[in-house]
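Subject: Interface between my chains keeps coming out wrong

I've been trying for a while to get a sensible model of this assembly. When I model each chain on its own everything looks fine, but I need the whole thing in one frame so I can look at the contacts. Pasting all components below, labels as-is. Any help appreciated, I'm running out of ideas.
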Amino acid sequence: MSATPDSTSPAIELVGIEKAYGQAPAVRHLDLTIAQGEFFSLLGPSGCGKTTTLRMMAGFEFPDAGSIRLDGHDVTEVPAHRRQVNLVFQKYELFPHMTVRRNVGYGLKVRRVPRAEIDDRVDEMLETVGVGAFADRRADQLSGGQQQRVALARALVNRPRALLLDEPLSALDVKLRKRMQLELKSIQERLGTTFVYVTHDQEEALLMSDRIGIMNDGRLLQVGTPREIYGTPADPFVADFVGELNAFEVEVRKVGGRVSGVVDGSPVDVPSSASTGKRWRIAVRPERMEVGPAGRKDALHGRVTELNYLGHTLQYSVETAVGELVVRAGAGDVEREPGSAVSIWWAADAVIDLGEATP
Amino acid sequence: MSATPDSTSPAIELVGIEKAYGQAPAVRHLDLTIAQGEFFSLLGPSGCGKTTTLRMMAGFEFPDAGSIRLDGHDVTEVPAHRRQVNLVFQKYELFPHMTVRRNVGYGLKVRRVPRAEIDDRVDEMLETVGVGAFADRRADQLSGGQQQRVALARALVNRPRALLLDEPLSALDVKLRKRMQLELKSIQERLGTTFVYVTHDQEEALLMSDRIGIMNDGRLLQVGTPREIYGTPADPFVADFVGELNAFEVEVRKVGGRVSGVVDGSPVDVPSSASTGKRWRIAVRPERMEVGPAGRKDALHGRVTELNYLGHTLQYSVETAVGELVVRAGAGDVEREPGSAVSIWWAADAVIDLGEATP
Amino acid sequence: MKPNRIVAALQLAPASVYYSALFGAPLLVLVAYSFYTTENFDFVPEFTLDNYVTAWTSEVYRTYFIRTLRISAITAAVIAVVAFFYSYVITYTLRAHRSLLYFFVLVSMFGGYLVRIYAWRSIFGTEGIANSALMSTGIIAEPLDLLRNGEFAIIIAMINFYLPLGILPIYAAMQNVGPGQIEAAQDLGSSRLGAAGKIVLPLALRGVTVAFVFTFIATAAEWLTPQLLGGTEDQMIGNRIAYQFGAGFDWPLGAALAVTLVVVLAVLLGALFTVVRRWVR
Amino acid sequence: MKPNRIVAALQLAPASVYYSALFGAPLLVLVAYSFYTTENFDFVPEFTLDNYVTAWTSEVYRTYFIRTLRISAITAAVIAVVAFFYSYVITYTLRAHRSLLYFFVLVSMFGGYLVRIYAWRSIFGTEGIANSALMSTGIIAEPLDLLRNGEFAIIIAMINFYLPLGILPIYAAMQNVGPGQIEAAQDLGSSRLGAAGKIVLPLALRGVTVAFVFTFIATAAEWLTPQLLGGTEDQMIGNRIAYQFGAGFDWPLGAALAVTLVVVLAVLLGALFTVVRRWVR
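Reply #2:
Try treating it as a single job with all components included. I did that and got this:
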């Protein structure tokens, strides 16, 4: 039972997956290919179908239609205990009556790996995830972070063809979560295992993933690298869900020979797809907007209603002709007090195209 | 029973509070004064005593020693149901068998406010928090965010002398939490009620609070505005808990007539308190560090080990002579690929003083 | 495709069969018997309503039915109240020890009926401890009827025996009402008692109703306790039914009495559920 | 300063008194009686060990004790196994219906002992359904002894009556073992059955032990079922105790038998707990 991935096939292929619970569709016609050694995240709000998709990869749910391939072999109907993937559960699901060592060795023992090899692999994996010191503690005597590491070790020690992770960090507090994100990523890079990571936290997905798939309402909306997802979202939902967004409508006109959006009398850049005479919906991320003294030409004009200090950044709320905009600036920048009149502008490549406005 | 705050006294004063559960001290000699109309946050890791402190303000726990004053009146021994403060619970604790309207009117009805006045005040408060449309739904038919608003309305409608909030947003998901933070802050500003807000999320505390008190291990370590807490932390724990930190030791020497820290052969700025010949512990926040091409004088030298894309920022991990440093740069900056040699430097005022290094 | 569903159906089958056999079958047998004719101490399957006529018109049986319903209603009502307070205290006030105290309840459900019933007999017997003690201290001069075997003794003993049965559903219902909701009510100005009445009682009302119904049914079907504590006069309908199935050897009449009891209970408790449901709304 | 503590203590008091009265007092009375001397059908408080000598040396009582322990052990063991599978199925496989199925269990704890015991009598009676059916279909020529009133009938009926009592603690224990832990075991390569044996059984073992102990105690103290189903020969020690407290009118001997039963059960179950605890480690 060699654990070396077959590098000629993708790690996981989902083809035309459909899944409904009773009348309620959970996953709708989903196609997805995950490459060997990739850190792939499924990102979406709760109820979007991402966990159902992961559980179908694990073999705990079975699709109503479509097929699942693992290293090129069809595993659509193979139940969980005979699939060579492992799952890290959201609530860890350690076995509380066993020691850490017995928890981690469970999968090897079930697969009748020789005793001596189990001991070696368990010890090595406990060191890898950094809980070697707790090997003989009972699983229910560990802190949340330690349990998380043990759950990871228990899955990885089996050298799965792919490791599936179901919001594994969501039970940890902020500081620990941030540290574990970096650790998980570095373990993945070291071992070269394919990771499929389900999360609803967009920052987490951006930070860790090679590629991200955004899901909503059972559909896979966009698959791409973090930069593609964040910079050129394919869909208004993706744009809004990943990162914060100032979205508004502009009127597209020819101004001085160039096609521009006109707001509040000022021309602003619009996507090249925008056509003259229409109303267009565009968006700019808060950190791509610049805020400066009032009176600047070719800018939006507004008044600061709120200034919040976030430590590393300043966050302004600015009332403008297109509504309240959120703008972020470095903490070292000149501060504009609430009440001051300001101009807001942005670079041409900061504009996200949300398409023609529906009247 | 007028609800107008007595503006001559602080809203809440805690004097010499001590509280232990059995042998385990939960709060140790805590003094704290919260001003009228202030948004005050108690921030700390779980188990630091912040919730116990809040529950003593609410009248659900009673201190072993010390006294609690509300608007100048001693309420140390007054039980919760006779204290004119209200608490928003972490799990909302709505009454599932009542409609939203009856939930919100509960406190007024218990206090025998006339029926007509109850109706008016409840309706007004439901509009204020934005759940007017759900007034006749049962409380258990609402989403998490709606329940949160109802819990807020149920407390605020009584016009408490102070509103106590126990991690009220921790059950919401990221997007909704961010929106509710701004809404809560704006409701507080509109009503002018004193808010005491318990949280373990430092970003939340920085964003919302007028002042923050940082607790750890039952002690109140520092009280100050968000800028004071973030910029000049009084204590290594505070520095590390609020915001991320690159902490390291430098050798203090006279270099070219100036007292400098020397690392890796390069001089770096040290706090004025540092004295020559000692080893000093300093820290710089990731976003205050600059990263540029290798070879710069008066800088740390290192090699990029990791580059993470966070959407609005780039995060580098850089291996240097003082260990691995985390540096953040704007997403628009020149990117340094992993493996490249870089220089790292920072402004003199970015240095946080953590005191003389313990050998 | 969905092996789990088939497995589930196969696994549900034995449970369904078991419970139909347990409850449905005896009841059907009973109903059938109640229309049999008794001839020369033998029962022949000839349809007759005579058994029901006897059961419904006889003055004797009416007295038994009324006494049974009175005893059961009082017992169930007292149990519902006591069980509510007991559950409240172990759920909220003595939260730390609640597993232990709940364990007590479970244990006392089946522990030593034999020992306890004889203890009650020694208390309420003709020469019982209750009367002897009061007479020896001079509080009363003659034995009080109340403290002899009879209705009062039956009720006291049955409250003792069936209290755990009442605690079970109320305790279970209260586990869904967190102490946080009580704290919320206190925070909004309710006293502890106010919170118990306005928050806990309505939320646990279903459990309280179930407790009343459980104990009402269980005590109305009792025949052992009245036999041992009720003396010759104050027995319940269960004793008459048991007699007809035993020494009396008139199964059809016994069956008609049992079916009548089941119907009366069903009607009464149906009415109760309707009232409670309306009240909760 | 801490009014809650005082209130808690005051509220704990009635519960403590209630439970000491319920269990402690009858047992003390019983122990006291067991040393009384019987004289002319009256009991005098003169210390004697005669009752224990009779209880322990009489061949008759030894037969009763051994039969009782055998019947109870078999019943409790069967119940523990069946209750484990029933709890497993309603907790995991039929998760959606588990409240309903658990409600069935509760209801069947006290629903219609009277009706059911007569149903069993009609099955296992001398002219019982079991034998008649087999004979009429020609499978057997003569009535089988096994299917008459007797030990087998007692065991079958008691399994039926006490099964819910066994389900309660096992079901409760399983509620702490999430379906997630079973899925984790499956994910790591265990079959469904493997997960049940390696994960659920060890974690629910305390509940299984409690179920065994509960049903063992409850059935060992039984006297009603054997009286109604056991015929004249196959009765249990409870019947002898009941007889001495009733028609036999030798309370001291009855008390000595009861105390002996309690001591034997305590020793056996103490040993069981020790073994189980060691096995779990």
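Reply #3:
Confirming on my end. Chain B has eight helices and 20 strands.
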